[in-house]
Amino acid sequence: MINPLFFKAFNGFDWASNSVDVYGLQVSAKIGEVSVGGYGLWYNMGTFPMQVNSVNTNVNPGLWQIINGTQEGEFGWLGFYSDGKLGPVNYNFDFGYDYGKARSRMTPFAHSVQYNGWATRMKVDYPWEKANFGITGMYASGSDLNKTSSTGIPGSAPANNPFGQSSNVSGWMVPVGSEVGAVNGESAVFYGMEAGASGGQGWAVTHNYYQPSKGAFGGTWFTKLYGSYKVIPQYKVTVQAMYIGDTSRSGNTFGTAIDVLNPTTGNVHYRNDGRIGYELDLINDFQIYKNLNFKVFGGYLFAGHAMDYWTGIGTENAHIRNPWALRTRLMYTF
């Protein structure tokens, strides 16, 4: 299958704007019991970010207004995927790489920012009678807080250098406009599960659809073991345990703990930790009727030091309370 793509993701409507055009190609094939495929996407962004929320206190006090970005850029994504059956196991593999550049049209002194990140995921299932056992591994590159800000916008200051400028975003980014808040179902607490149908979004989510963003995976990695058993035809139970790590450098992906504070300048240096935590989940799946499904699922995250946060007082950091989630979903399909 050869599938060419073209989208006009955004069409500017004032003098500071320009269009955002997306070109792509996807190629896939089936070889026996194995499917393989690859894709490429190219975003030509005359406006970057596509839209920015801003408060204009002079015209409409307290009201959010949409304004167009004053940057421009080009971003690309290359990926490879494969899934199928190898002997007694089923597998699913994905690899993606993002690259590009963002620059300012309106601020000559702002340095351009280079983007280059990657992510990969492998899932293997071993079905056995009424049971299924599996393992999933994922790694997504993280950024260096000495080289990038929280936004990556040209001219913005890196987290560890308020007097410098962002130059590189090495963390894995998802494409502009992606539903990064609703694409992951790896866990009940940290990554979210059954997104969209239940509002089951987790901790690792970024509602940032107008520019590349780390989504749920960027700056993290995990290993997950799980097993399920179909007790009766209408009821299946799943138990899973996972270790979640942090891949950002010179700081943490989500935590804000610091180890240095300059009392003269107020400049902070963020602490770098490796463990986000351990998570345990229990999933109960009830097939009430053919078209009616009910799920009760939840989890508990034993938070690691990479989730610690700075209190804002000296170099004092605090540890978050272990987060947990309990969710239900009733879905009728037709």
Structure write-up:
- Strand 6 and strand 7 form a beta hairpin.
- The strands form 4 sheets. Strands 1, 2, 3, 6, 7, 8, 9, 10, 11, 12, 15, 16 and 19 form a 13-stranded mixed sheet that branches.
- With 334 residues, the chain is mainly β.
- The chain has one domain.
- It is built from no helices and 19 strands.
- The two termini are 29 Å apart.
List the helices and strands and how they pair.
Blueprint: E1 2-10, E2 20-31, E3 34-48, E4 52-55, E5 64-67, E6 71-86, E7 89-104, E8 113-128, E9 131-140, E10 168-169, E11 220-232, E12 235-246, E13 258-261, E14 268-270, E15 275-289, E16 292-303, E17 309-310, E18 317-318, E19 324-332
Parallel strand pairs: 8-10
Antiparallel strand pairs: 1-2, 2-3, 3-6, 4-5, 6-7, 7-8, 8-9, 9-11, 11-12, 12-15, 13-14, 15-16, 16-19, 17-18
| Backbone shape | globular
Structural class of the helices, strands and pairings?
mainly beta
Please summarize the sheet with the most strands. 13 strands, mixed
Which ranges are low-confidence, i.e. pLDDT below 50, for 5 or more consecutive residues?
195-199
Task: Output the helix-strand order.
Answer: EEEEEEEEEEEEEEEEEEE
Radius of gyration: 22 Å
How far apart are the first and last residues' alpha carbons, in Å? 29 Å
How would you state the average pLDDT, rounded?
Answer: 86
- Total strands: the figure is 19
| Separate helix tally | 0
Helical content (DSSP H or I, runs of 4+):
under 10%
Structurally, the number of domains stands at 1
Beta-strand content: over 45%
